[in-house]
Design a protein that fits this description.
The protein is an alpha+beta fold. About 15% of the residues lie in helices and about 50% in strands. The chain contains one helix and 32 strands. The protein has one helix at about 1-65, and strands spanning about 70-75, 85-90, 90-95, 100-105, 110-115, 120-125, 130-135, 140-145, 145-155, 160-165, 170-175, 180-185, 190-200, 205-210, 215-225, 230-235, 250-255, 260-265, 270-275, 280-285, 295-300, 305-310, 315-320, 325-335, 340-345, 350-355, 355-360, 365-370, 375-380, 385-390, 395-400, 405-410. The strands form eight sheets. A four-stranded antiparallel β-sheet has the order 1-32-31-30, with no helix packed on it. A four-stranded antiparallel β-sheet has the order 2-3-4-5, with no helix packed on it. The termini are far apart.
C-alpha cells in the first residue's frame, strides 16, 4: 500500500513539473512575443518620426529657403514679328500679336497656331478659353486650349472683351449715342442678349468680367451725377435666376463708390469677384446668386499701379509713400483675407500669380515670392522677358519673351 502511495506521489510530482514546465515555456513565448511587438512598435515610431521630420523639412524648405541662382533647363527660339503679349491658357502659354496667335506647352512645344489680322489686339483669359479682340476694330477671335473655336464681328468699335471658362464672350461696343454690351457663343455666333447704356443717363462701362459659367456679368460703370463723375459696380444674371428680375440686374453697388472711379472688375471663380477703384480694392461674394454682396472693403491712400490675379488670389502693387521703399506688394485671398504685404525698391514692369507663386519682374529683374511672403529668389534675368509662369518640375519657371521661351531651375 505504501509503495502504491509513493508511486502516486511521484506521478503527481511529475505532472506538476510538466505543468510548471509548460507554464514556463508558455510564459517565455508570451514574453518573447511581447518583446517582438515592442520592437515593432519602436521601429514604427522611429519610421513615423523620420517621415514627419522629412515632411517638416520639405515644408520648411519650400516655405522659407531662398534660392540664390538659376540655370537654364531648355530654351526655344520663336519667330520674330509683331508681338502683343502672353496669357496663361489652362496649363499652356498663349502668345498673341497683330497677325496671329500661337499656343505653347510648358515644355516649349508648339501646340497650334492661328492667323488673323488686327491693329490693336487685346486678350482676356478665363480658365481654358481666351478671346483676342481688336480694340477700336470690329473683329474678335475665340480660342480654347485646343485651338480656335470661333470668329465674330461686331457692328460697332470694340472697347473691351471678356470671356468665360465655357467660351461665352462679352464685348463692349460704343458709338456717339451710347455703349452696348453684346454676347457671343464660343463658335462666334451672336447671342440674343444686349445691354444698352446711354451716356446721358446710364453712364458708360469701363470694364467687364464674366463668371466662369458665363451666366453672370460684372460691370464697372461711370456716370454723371450733377457735376460729378461717379462710379458703381453692377451685376447681371442671364440664367433662370435673373429671368424675372428687371433688366436682369441682380446687384448694384453705388454708395461705396460715390467718390471713386472703378477701373477694373474681375471674376476670380464662381463665388468671388473683386473691383479695383482709385480708393482701394473691394471683394464681392455671389454665394447667393440672386443677390451678390460686398464682403470686404480695403481702402488705399496710395496709388494702385498694378493689378494681377489668379483663380484664388488678387494682387496689388502700390506706390509706397509711408516708408523709404518705393513700392508695396499686397496679396489677398479671393474672399479679401490678407495673405501678405511686402515693400521693395527693385524696378519692375509686370507682376503675375501662378500656382502659389508671385512674380514681380521687368527691367532685367525678377523676384519670386511664395504665399508665406518668403522671397524665394531675386536676381537678374533677360530684360526682354514679357511673362513668367510656373513650370511643370519642382523649382522650374518659364520665362517668355517676344522671340524666346526659356525654362530655368532655381538652385
Amino acid at each position: 500500500m505504501s509503495e502504491i502511495n509513493n508511486r502516486e506521489a511521484r506521478k503527481r510530482i511529475l505532472r506538476e513539473r510538466m505543468v510548471s514546465q509548460d507554464d514556463s515555456e508558455e510564459k517565455e513565448l508570451e514574453e518573447r512575443s511581447e518583446r517582438k511587438k515592442k520592437r515593432r512598435r519602436i521601429i514604427w515610431v522611429v519610421i513615423l518620426i523620420i517621415a514627419l521630420a522629412a515632411v517638416l523639412g520639405v515644408f520648411l524648405f519650400r516655405r522659407y529657403f531662398k534660392f540664390s541662382s538659376f540655370e537654364a533647363s531648355w530654351s526655344k527660339d520663336l519667330n520674330r514679328g509683331s508681338f502683343a503679349g502672353y496669357k496663361r491658357l489652362g496649363n499652356d502659354l498663349l502668345k498673341f500679336s497683330r497677325d496671329g496667335a500661337t499656343c505653347y506647352s510648358e515644355k516649349g512645344e508648339e501646340l497650334w497656331t492661328a492667323s488673323y489680322e488686327m491693329k490693336n489686339p487685346a486678350a482676356a483669359v478665363n480658365g481654358k478659353f481666351a478671346v483676342i479682340a481688336d480694340q477700336q476694330g470690329t473683329t474678335l477671335q475665340i480660342f480654347s486650349e485646343d485651338g480656335k473655336t470661333g470668329t465674330a464681328t461686331t457692328n460697332l468699335p470694340i472697347v473691351k472683351a471678356a470671356v468665360s471658362s465655357t467660351g461665352v464672350t462679352a464685348v463692349t461696343e460704343t458709338d456717339q449715342s451710347g455703349n452696348y454690351i453684346t454676347f457671343f457663343k464660343k463658335d462666334g455666333t451672336a447671342l440674343d442678349i444686349t445691354i444698352k447704356m446711354k451716356i446721358s443717363g446710364d453712364g458708360f462701362p469701363v470694364d467687364i468680367a464674366l463668371s466662369p459659367d458665363g451666366n453672370r456679368l460684372m460691370v464697372s460703370n461711370e456716370y454723371i451725377d450733377g457735376q460729378d463723375l461717379k462710379g458703381r459696380v453692377l451685376f447681371y444674371d442671364f440664367s433662370e435666376i435673373g429671368k424675372n428680375i428687371p433688366n436682369r440686374l441682380v446687384g448694384a453697388f453705388i454708395d461705396s463708390f460715390s467718390k471713386s472711379l472703378v477701373a477694373r472688375v474681375v471674376y476670380l471663380n464662381p463665388t468671388y469677384s473683386f473691383a479695383v477703384a482709385d480708393t482701394g480694392i473691394y471683394f464681392f461674394s455671389s454665394k447667393n446668386l440672386a443677390s451678390p454682396t460686398l464682403i470686404k472693403e480695403i481702402t488705399e491712400s496710395d496709388e494702385i499701379q498694378t493689378v494681377f490675379y489668379s483663380e484664388d488670389y488678387a494682387g496689388l502693387i502700390l506706390k509706397n509713400t509711408a516708408s523709404s521703399s518705393r513700392y508695396r506688394l499686397e496679396i489677398y485671398k479671393a474672399d479679401g483675407t490678407a495673405v501678405f504685404k511686402k515693400e521693395f525698391n527693385t524696378p519692375y514692369t509686370n507682376a503675375d500669380i501662378d500656382d502659389g507663386y508671385v512674380f514681380v519682374y521687368g527691367s532685367g529683374n525678377l523676384t519670386i515670392y511664395n504665399m508665406a511672403g518668403t522671397e524665394k529668389f531675386s536676381g537678374e534675368i533677360d530684360p526682354q522677358v514679357s511673362a513668367v509662369t510656373r513650370g511643370s518640375a519642382p523649382n522650374e519657371f518659364i520665362l517668355a519673351g517676344s522671340t524666346f521661351l526659356r525654362s530655368i531651375r532655381l538652385h
